[in-house]
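Journal club prep, notes for RB
We'll compare a predicted complex against what the paper describes. Inputs for the flavin-adenine dinucleotide case:
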Amino acid sequence: VRETVERTRVVVIGAGQAGLSVAYYLRRLGLSPGSDFVVLDRGPSTGGAWQFRWRALRLGTAHRVNDLPGMADLGLSFETADRTAPARDVVSDYYDRYERFYDLRVRRPSDVRGVEEGQDHGLTVRYLDGGGAPRFLDTEIVVNATGTWGSPFRPWYPGRDSFAGRQVTTAEYTDASEFEGQDVVVVGGGTSAIGFLLELERVGARTTWATRRPVDWFDQQELGIEMGAAAVAEQDEAARAGLALPSIVSGTGVPLTRRNRAGIDRGVLVDRPMFASIEPEGVRFADGSFQHADAIIWATGFRPELRHLAPLGLRSREGGVVVSRGASQADPRLYFAGYGPQASTIGANRAGRVIARQVLLALSTSPGRAA
Ligand code: FAD
């Protein structure tokens, strides 16, 4: 039963960097927040995925976090923010001020459960409000900006479910102190894994670092920009072909910062090839050696969060969705912000501009209505 049906023209799902950037440009192009377009987010608070990131992640240790478009008008910039404060606090606070300044009227918590065929060739967005009541929004266009945080990827290894200790993904990791004095195996070759290893060292955990491929350290000054561009191109190619997206880390490598170099010298950031199987008390490597473990931390990346789009049947046979410049190639009513090549704060900003323009064009040519 569709108890509450509302109409709008554009629904943006997700109020992280990508969704807010789209909302900013839609507003700038003349659409009214809350009536012409509605932004839904299931998080309890502002900040997108940043609100859930572990406390020890500082702006100073994250990659560069780019300002949202128009953030300068509030006199705010991440460049001048406190680099030692938890990134989640700073980002949540800045996004909160941003949403209020531009009156973006994000509805939260609004947990989108399905996007389905609607009336008059439109789409219906089905979501649960804060009280768990079902709500329905009929719309012409949906911009999906749901990020990846809700879909941590944990690869399967033999014996995984037999492990007697604790297993957590990056999304579940909150604080190193929970692992004080323990034997911990950290899996994954990216920045999150490195951050965890260094924090665990400080609380006296004994760590083992396992990676599928040898870690690809690169000199920050020389190669960073070039390798970043190559990784974005790789994501773009996969998105256009509808392939499952490759891991960002596999394309970018890891910067050899002073902090990381010191970690290597202390023997903390020394990776060994991935283990072959998991046993109740630890992990077994291909050479037969055994490492006892109280916990395994899976810093093995994320997949796009797209479950709610399943009713539209967009998945290609290759396992991804076909997206070019943020536009779904299978359904003209659907856009993807922050997907694939746009999955960074700078990429998400660009996505906002490119997608908002396309949305305006689509609305102006939609039957019987002008934007
Ligand atoms: P998110 O910030 O994840 O926002 C998505 C929003 O959608 C969330 O608020 C979520 O609640 C909401 N949502 C999801 N599903 C639903 C649903 N079904 N219904 C309603 N709402 C929903 N990039 C950088 O440029 N610099 C960095 O330093 C950096 N550090 C990173 C560190 C980690 C650990 C990770 C995993 C990624 C990092 N990234 C970084 C990349 C990341 O892509 C950026 O953080 C970027 O902010 C992502 O923005 P987004 O809007 O696409 O996604």
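Talking point for the session: The chain has a mean pLDDT of 91.
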